[in-house]
Amino acid sequence: MSRTICILNGSPRANGNTKELIRRFTKGAEAAGHEVVCFDLQKMDIHGCLGCCKGGKDENSPCVQKDDMERIYPVYRTADVIVLASPMYYWGISGQLKTAFDRLFAVAELTPDYENPKKECVLLMAAEGETESNFAPVRAFYEGLTSHLGWKNAGIVYAGGNMEAGDILGKPSQLEEAEELGRSI
Questions:
Q1: Contact of 62 with 30, CB cutoff 8 Å
Q2: Which pTM was predicted?
Q3: How far apart are CA 119 and CA 150, in angstroms?
Q4: Residue range 35-72, pLDDT digits in tens
Q5: How far apart are CA 68 and CA 42, in angstroms?
Q6: Spatial separation of the C-alpha atoms in residues 22 and 8, rounded to whole Å
Q7: Which domains, from first to last, does the chain contain?
């Protein structure tokens, strides 16, 4: 069964290690017959959440702020799978990804109980460090996020040992893991 996959790319590098993970994940997902839409958040005009709790009045434009989130909302609402793709920044996701994800609350405001749409979720992360303890804070964040949203974890690729753009090209097993995850969705 074909599924729709929405990738939120939080990497500021146009051709960095995270983007390589996305390329290979997309290759696998498309080979499996899925539709993939990727948003490169660094290239978009997205403002931080105002915390106003005044969204949710218009299904087509749920947030009071009018910026490039307008392009993301319709894809997000109908997607079966959300991919959070980010380099590790200070043992967390990038600011670009956090900013966009916070703004998805406007979609939850469309329901009386602030219920988020139920999704499957994938995490793709490139990082310099490669130990289990290096990824522990991200794992805790991701598990907490998916648990509280009621989302199903569809898979994680932690790609450690990648500092400079292009480092991951020398680690084919990490790229193969991302491609296989895309194919398995």
A1: no
A2: 0.96
A3: 8
A4: 999 999 999 999 999 999 999 899 889 999 999 999 99
A5: 11
A6: 10
A7: 4-184 (3.40.50.360)
Tokens read off for 142: 């991701």
* Identity of residue 93: I
Per DSSP, the residues of the chain read ---EEEEEE--S-TTSHHHHHHHHHHHHHHHTT-EEEEEEGGGS--PPP-------S-TTS-SSS-STHHHHHHHHHH-SEEEEEEE-BTTB--HHHHHHHHHTHHHHTTSTT-PPPP-EEEEEEE-S--SHHHHHHHHHHHHHHHHHHTPEEEEEEEE-S--STTGGGG-HHHHHHHHHHHHH-
Q: How far is CA 152 from CA 92, 122, 130, in A?
A: 20, 9, 25
pLDDT tens, position by position, 159-177: 999 999 999 999 999 999 9
Q: Which residue has the tokens 């805790």?
A: 140
Two tokens, residue 33: 């017959």
Contacts of 183 (CB under 8 A, 6+ apart): 28, 29, 31, 32
